[in-house]
Write a structure and sequence with these properties.
heterodimer; B: 35% helix
Chain lengths: 392, 212
Amino acid sequence: MARGWYPKALMNMDLEFVNPQTLHIDTPLEMVSGSVLPQYDLVYETYGQLNKTASNALLICHALSGNHHVAGYYKGDKTPGWWNGYIGPGKPIDTDRFFVVCSNNLGGCHGSTGPASINPLTGQVYGPDFPIVTCKDWVHSQNQLRQHLKIDRWAAVIGGSMGGMQVLQWAIDYPEQLQHAIVIAAAPKLSAQNIAFNEVARRAIMTDPDFHNGRFIEANTTPKKGLALARMLGHLTYLSDDMMGSKFGRELREGKLNYNFDVEFQVESYLRYQGEKFVTKQNFDANTYLLMTKALDYFDPAADFDNNLSLALAKATAHFLVISFTSDWRFAPERSHEIVKALLDNDAAVSYAEVDSQHGHDAFLLPNAHYEGIFRAYMQRVLSDVTPEESS
Amino acid sequence: MNARTPEFNLISEWILPNSRVLDLGCGDGTLLHHLKKTRQTTGYGMEIDPEKNIVAISRGINVIQSNLNSHEICDYFDEDSFDFVIMTQAIQVVSRPDLLIDEMLSVGKEGIITFPNFGHWRNLSRLFFQGRMPQNETLPNPWYNTANIHLCTFSDFEDLCDEKDIAIVERKVVNTQHQPSIFTRLSPNLLGEIALYRIKRKTKAPSNETFA
């Protein structure tokens, strides 16, 4: 573990026994694609206490394969939420001070309505009929959750990768509803290369014989091979060459070459394990994977503003912290520069940190002293905007 | 009080209230924090050092982590975005001070630059009598391990301004205690240890010419 800003044993503790909740929403969601979702569920978790004036609430937005279980442990579970290192008592996102909310994105496969859910109109599984969701739709649905929780304004909306894009969308679509925006390892839109990777992942899933045009649940199967391939490819783009070099190098699985097509190198074994885990342990739904990659491809808030990101962000009033990682080639620091530049064009309050890390895109989930220091310092600023008399 | 406080006080005398300020190499944000309090300034700092960035952020400073040698300033900011672009004790550490000055005066209406005087008599005498590179309070590190790769004298700096058609609006020459004295007035290039310059472009060059 990297050195923390405070002594870890003293300050940082894990949340225990967190529980998900479900909000059923009857307000129809008019989606960007033109489809309307008459009703849907959002599953979410909360940590910490909402103060009397509801001014200490944070919304965490998850990345492609993430979900609402962002921190703490379920009873009997050994694996904590996906951002446990940064959220908990005494951690940069301090649950002793903030009320933390994270929901599973619509179209997901961990409790929120998605392709694996039953369509109440037909009584059948949605499958491929689940409408295409976009970042805007997510933000729109999360805004329903905000109203349900009686939060006027988030003290901050925070997210990495795809979650960072949602943060941008929040700042653009609901400028009055967030005071701070923390955008980590994100991009203002996908590059051709990013889209290309997503397309290969989708082809892997859709050409799996077990895909059944998306109706694999009815066919009592899942496109395991395709989904695992998609995950292996995605996972590759989260790692850096340097990191893979130092972690695996050309290390052999059996200590000698066998000259066949079985796993020879450790890196092959690792990738296969990642693909396998995604399909079996995480039970990720292949249609959800397709939807999430599509939402990423479509994300381009500047498109509605003459392809001018500065114009898109002109109405944003949030204060921004933008963070990138030096070895992230999926959403490289240059992509964060674009966001920072657009904010500077608007004279927005923005700070930017480029964290030195060899862990590639995944760095936003991992311990790092600089990252943690910046995060902690900025969260103190967020806290200072939650006025003391307002904290209960 | 910080060792640099007197220097920062001298700088803030030049800053008009409510100015927009960019501080290049802003360190831990002390100067911007000071200007925010005393002159109600707005703006940004740029700094490469992560540890200093953390302190600046906790002070409430908006800081963009950036390498001054990468010439990102004109990418980030439009022409005349700031009333003042400040660079304290940093010009001697960058790879191309001349280009950086162009960038400063492109995005800012005025520049404020402070740096140690290599032509101070103590430096000269060490070179002349001992044949060795100066090492003292202002230049604490040995020649092989110093960030100061572009040291210059006040006259050198003023020559560069002249060449670039840059007007020196005002100059303050002080000793290490940041006091002007009869000596620093008599022969600044020989007796002054630190100079503070306020500069502006005589005729503002079109933006596409300033940095190619």
